[in-house]
Sequence to fold (184 residues):
Amino acid sequence: MHGRFAAALAWGGMAAVIAACSSGKDAGARADSARADSAAAAVTPSVDSAAPAAGAAAASGGGTLSSDITAAENAWRIAVTGGDTVELGRITATGFTMVGKTGPASTVTRATLMKQVSQGMLQADSSSASNVTVNGSGDSATADLTFFWHVSRMGKPAKAETMQVTDTWVKRDGRWQLVSRKEK
Fold:
């Protein structure tokens, strides 16, 4: 019982840190994140006494690879959904690219993403990441996941989109940065 409580407390602290980093117009994203963090805390194994420490360590940047990347995925998701270009600038690597299903024709660069978000051409009111599988070691990792968001592009009515993606992450200067996102 104590282990589950500590894990829930650690995940709640991480949610507070992530929410504090996002912009003021993302209340829906913060609510989505809190729900995702609560669900993750409910399934966090409590058998290992290090599990609560891992959750707390992830919030400070020293957790397990899987928890670090999951936290980074949530921070990225909240920044995009909340329109927080400052956080997007920190999370995405300089050469970041996002490749859609059609390949090069659908590639979005970091500069394009930042422009679309800052000018309101890309707006999402909710998002979630699920089925996250992390692979890697040291300072590089990939995350295969299902990404959902309710998004509006170029002023068109918002629509729900679900996609399978592979994100590539690298650790630079002590923090994880998203190098690429590729839709499958």
User: Anything to note?
Assistant: The two ends are 40 Å apart (CA to CA). Residues 2-20 form the longest helix (19 residues). The beta strands are 92-100, 103-109, 122-137, 140-153, 159-172, 175-183. The domain at 2-183 is CATH 3.10.450.50 (Nuclear Transport Factor 2; Chain: A,).
